[in-house]
Amino acid sequence: MVKRASLVLVILLVLSVTSVLLVSAQEGNQDIYGRDLPEDAAPYEMQTWSVLCDSTRTEMSLSSIITVYQRICGDTNIFDLLGDALVNLDENLNLIPGAAESWEPTEDGTAWLFHLRPGQVWSDGTPLTAADYVASFRFMADPANAYDFVWMWQGTIKNWSEAVAGEVSPEDVGVEAVDDLTVKVTTDGARPYLPGMVYFWPPLQAAALAEHGPGYVIDPALSVSSGPFMLTEFEAGSRLTLEANPTYTGYRPPYIRQITATYGDQLNGSFLAFQNHQIDRVMYVHLSPADFEVIASDPILAENYLPNFGDFRTDYLFFDTYTAPFDNLQVRQAFAHALDRESIVENVIGSQFGVPAYSFLAPGFPSSDATGDLREYQNYDCELAQSLLAEAGYPGGEGFPAQELKLRGETEARAQWWIASAASISDCLNVEITVNNMEFNAFMEALLARPTGITFGAVSYGMDYLDPSNMLGVWVSTARHSWRSAEFDQLVNDANVLVGDLETRDQMYRDAERILVEEAAGVFLVHRIQGDLFQPYVAGECFRPDAQGVSAWHWGNDWCWGTFYITNDVANYDTYRD
Description:
Number of strands: 21
Helix content: 25-40%
Strand order of the largest sheet: 1-10-9-8
Structural class: alpha+beta
Number of helices: 16
Largest sheet: 4 strands, mixed
Radius of gyration: 26 Å
Shape: globular
């Protein structure tokens, strides 16, 4: 009897110990913030996110405050993780709190107040304050820094244009610290869309910027972070490592422990690296038509390719309309009608990548041409195109100067889009067009020079915030392109400041785009269909459907970094995590 009781006691003791161990193991799967990971999550040490960066790009920083066009690993969305922007976007592109917990306009509508969440800190232990955001905006407005996205706030933030032109000090721009937790942005009159404009641009640390200059961001020995990750390793063109920031107190603490980036042939190597489970995500721009055929034939890959509207990106041709021959409206209209975009989308681009574009604003974007009324201004009609060119003084293309179509460092696949476009126009109009795929930075420098260095070019643009003031703002006479319509400028600028009459504001933007399209300031080729391919062992709230029924993971929702994780399914694959 004693022996039996002892045996039962031993069994109960073993079961009790086993239960304790299981509970301990489950409770032990926590992140650095002490949170239990989701039940299906892989152990915390396996919570790594890996990407492949483009070894051919010239890169300068991990911060959009310093550069937009030369961000490190710019096609992988691992920049701007060393801080939080004032606001963020949900999956339906509605504004939600970021570093600011709330915001409101002043009574007269000529300024906005952003109230920072209390308790946010930098990784060196110092508080995140309004002064950091002020220093960051002043850095961007300082002409000495030659910021490559400086046009963004021209005509919006008070004294911005004057500071950029060197007429006033950067300290005079309308961004100030009311107190440690309040950022005030003063505008050139009422600007109801201003909060959406600060979605990007997590701050630099004012103290580090003053002491070390902007290079501190990419020096692991100097880098400080108020964002969800901190820089621990960086070898330019070779390797980059970000670790979860243990001091982070913001709105998106990550489950992911580490981000690793290696460099290589991003265009031709991404899908292979993905198939070998060496990276966790491939953006649509790094997938070829052949890759899509493989994806479509594989149930697991097909299930994990998630299409989305992205940033409503449109690819288009543009001109220097201040210089012959493109100062002639009929020439530009002839080019517009000579572009067989339907055939190019179907046979070169692929219908899985986009839809033919006859206007600038993509379907679904506010004030876009949902009815197709603008199509008549740029539909393919070779006979009409030839007639317009003849009226411009170049019958049958005779005497028309040879043109060079300049591209912005396009991939081989996207370069074919423009080679086909040049061929379409050339064949229809009997004009000579060669294609020059320039280095990215050289293209942007030439584009933004005044006078511009590009007579005839091709480029794409996607939104920076969800309002027509952003997309159409690219075309106002002080912005990116060498085209001017006083009526267009007036409509856009008046709509930008109109408050309380959404219907009239919407119609003003529609009227402005009609001018843009009819005057062929640009010739529009394709509205892109975007998407991402994810590993089957990536999960989280980011994959819930948005209002359009597609994955919540798409352009604009940086809150995703606080929700996704690697699941236990990773053990079923032969991966680098083994």
